[in-house]
Amino acid sequence: MTARSSQPLFWRTRKSLTRLPIATLLTFAAVAGALTMLMAQNFFSILLSKKAPVKGVATRLPPRPRPLVIVAAGLPRTGSTWVYNVIRILARIRDPNSVAGWYADLINIWKNHKTGRYDHMKESWLTAYKSLNTTLVIKMHGPGPFKLFSHGAPLKQANLTVITHRDLRTEVRSWVYQNWNASIHAGNIGSTPFGDPNQWVRVAHHILDERLSTLASVGSGRVLDIRYEDWNQKSFEHQVKVIKKIANELGWPYSREELMATAIEAARLEPPANNAVLMYNPVNKLHPGHTRVDAKDPTFVHALEKGFRAIEKDADSRSFLKSKRYL
């Protein structure tokens, strides 16, 4: 009977292994390495199967928001550009790939650079932009541009049309402040100077006609009407309240922090300086005419008083002012 060695098993095994050929030892090492890798793979497979959360890494993308077509169709001098920018910012938060711009700028990018022509005119630009599967925000004044953009379709085709209104008296006054004389829309309001009170009434009628045309184009579609005086020169909280009203119509959820961030960004918008090179900011669409002007010429002040009284006496203008609680 062979006597049991007094050495530990580890030392006896180690001694036996040293007597094996090098090739055999390398084979053992390779097998051991393969088994180790297999065990590690199984370990991580178990972890992944349990979907263990990894800090800072999203395991799944959030659902893509439903693409919307939103038209900011407010008339000039009614805060339409501020409202457009609020919509643009809100859309960017929920749909970062959203497209936003002045309707004419959006049309221009479809130019065929090889031929120099706008070949996409065979198809509506609205259809072309919808193919991007992202939200589209179009800025325009009144319903006319949308017909060009959509090959004659009414504003009812949009998911939401946002219009703006203001006290007719101060709206016409703003036209005068900016020296938007009768050369603007001369076919609609004639060429009489604003010193004539009747010219103020004609401009007011033009504004009301454009407003009614916009509402008729929307028809049974969705429309939101924003009052200029509800946010302009109001507190930050008032502006957030109006922004929340717009956000609710978009149908996307927004946190209080996102609404406040939108208000801050909108408050920081600035028009470019008046120069012959940059006529407007290509992103926010602000131009030098968006600056506030106060006219102090006594002659103008007298004309303003007569213009205000003429608008107040006009039946159509007075009806609008009363319906919107300006009188």
Automatic annotation (TrEMBL):
Name of the protein: Sulfotransferase domain-containing protein
InterPro entries: P-loop_NTPase
Species this chain originates from: Gracilariopsis chorda
Gene3D superfamilies per the UniProt record, alphabetical: P-loop containing nucleotide triphosphate hydrolases
